Amino acid sequence: GDSVTQMEGPVTLSEEAFLTINCTYTATGYPSLFWYVQYPGEGLQLLLKATKADDKGSNKGFEATYRKETTSFHLEKGSVQVSDSAVYFCALSPNTGRRALTFGSGTRLQVQP
Amino acid sequence: ETGVTQTPRHLVMGMTNKKSLKCEQHLGHNAMYWYKQSAKKPLELMFVYSLEERVENNSVPSRFSPECPNSSHLFLHLHTLQPEDSALYLCASSQERGGKYNEQFFGPGTRLTVL
Q1: Interface test with B, best of A37, A44, A47, A98 (most B CBs within 10 A)
Q2: What is the C-alpha to C-alpha distance for residues A47 and B102, in angstroms, rounded to an integer?
Q3: Which 3 state secondary structure label does DSSP give A95?
């Protein structure tokens, strides 16, 4: 079945550091890929998405590129802020059949001033 | 109200109680979902409703019973729960068109504690 693997956290960075959170997936066909963010005490919010190979999703300074050859969708940000501290989830959805998301286990990011 | 709302935000119940979680979406979507978020585990899909169709995760115990009276409301009825059912329960909605996926929008969740 489909699966998503994320790097384990927590990831602790200083403000303005470069961020990479790795995500790889296993799926048949060409799934859509997503990054969601969960701030403390809140539900998940869609951060960015990509629906086909080589697409780059971007939002709020975050970027991720859909790499079919390496089945990866790594999240990057050039300069993190304290306000980026949250849990980040990589997810996929098949483009046919069952419509629900398969999530990774989440990676907690802590940014220190 | 905007987006996806969930009530209550926090719930403490005994194992013999019966309670219900409520979710309402104000986005005009036609599909709704229940997820369970436990500590140190991936999000688990529990139920999906899309128009008249219900897709159920086979591993969901019968002590969880969903109800979707219309496309804007989704309930999760709880009875005789176990302490291991304590978790954050998240509701989401999306707009499905011809089987094509569209992103899901999540509510803030209900934090459930079973004593």
Answers
A1: A44
A2: 14
A3: coil
